[in-house]
Design goal:
3 helices, three-stranded antiparallel β-sheet, extended, alpha+beta
Length: about 130
């Protein structure tokens, strides 16, 4: 009987499992609209994330001119986390192909040409003369 307990209690080794792929959902995009946005504002509640999108047409920061908001997306935090992961993956893929995206506007601005800065043409280029 003791032998039976030893043999029956021996651990079984389960075969390795494959990571589960997320389900692929069929999508119908016949009624979809496309908009461009360069402004986003977020608000949270205990249950949801609210994102408002709009187009800021001002060339510089001007808090006296309101940004016209055009779309609001409301999602739960599970969906927000999936969106976060997708955006993180997408931006990393973009940066690995095209270079790092600098989000600080001041670091992206090039200094304007000054009168003392000569403008040179590449050697061997067509001059149009």
């Amino acid at each position: 009987m003791a032998d039976e307990l030893k043999t029956s209690s021996s651990p079984t080794i389960a075969p390795p499992t494959q990571p589960q792929q997320p389900p692929q959902f069929a999508m119908d995009s016949t009624g979809i609209s496309t908009v461009y946005t360069n402004f986003c504002h977020g608000t949270i509640t205990p249950e949801e994330l609210i994102l408002d999108f709009g187009l800021n047409t001002q060339m510089g920061p001007n808090p006296n001119v309101p940004v016209k908001l055009t779309h609001r997306v409301v999602m739960n935090f599970y969906t927000a986390k999936r969106l976060l992961n997708f955006l993180h993956w997408t931006v990393n893929r973009y940066e690995s192909q095209f270079g790092v995206l600098e989000t600080d506007f001041q670091k992206r601005v090039r200094s304007p040409l000054t009168p003392s800065t000569p403008i040179t043409r590449p050697a061997g280029g067509a001059s149009g003369e």
